[in-house]
Amino acid sequence: MLTFSRSYTVDITYRCAKRCGYCIYRRDQGGLIPLSRLEAQLDEAARVGAREVLIMSGEQVWLLPDLGLAGEADFVERVADVCRRALQRGLLPHTNVGLLSGESLKTLKPFNVSMGLMLESGTDLLRAHAYGGGKRVADRLRHLEAAGALRIPFTTGILVGIGETPADRQRALRLIAGVQARWGHIQEVIIQNFVPKPGTPMGDLPGASLEDMRETVQLARALLPESIVIQVPPNLLGGDDSHRGDPWLQLVRDGARDLGGVSANGDSVSPEKPWEPVAVMGEKARSIGFRLEERLPVHAGIDADLRPAADELRRALVGDVVTYVVCRNVNISNVCVGSCSFCGFMRRTHSAAGAWHHDDTTIFAKIEDAVTRGATEVCMQSGLQPALDLVYFEDLFRRIKARWPALHIHALSPEEMRYIAELAGRPASYCIERLRDAGLGTMPGTAAEILVDEVRRVICPEKLSTQDWVDVLRAAHRAGVRSTSTVMFGHLENWGHRIEHLRVIRDLQRDTGGFTEFVLLPFQVEHNALGRHYGITRSPSLDETLRYTALARLHLGADIPNIQSSWVKLGPAGVTESLRWGANDFGGTLMEESISRASGADHGQNLEAAEIESWIRRAGRIPRERSTTYGEVTRRPRDELLDGAALRPLRVAGG
Ligand code: SF4
Question: Does ligand 1 have an atom closer than 6 angstroms to the CB of 129?
Answer without folding.
Answer: no
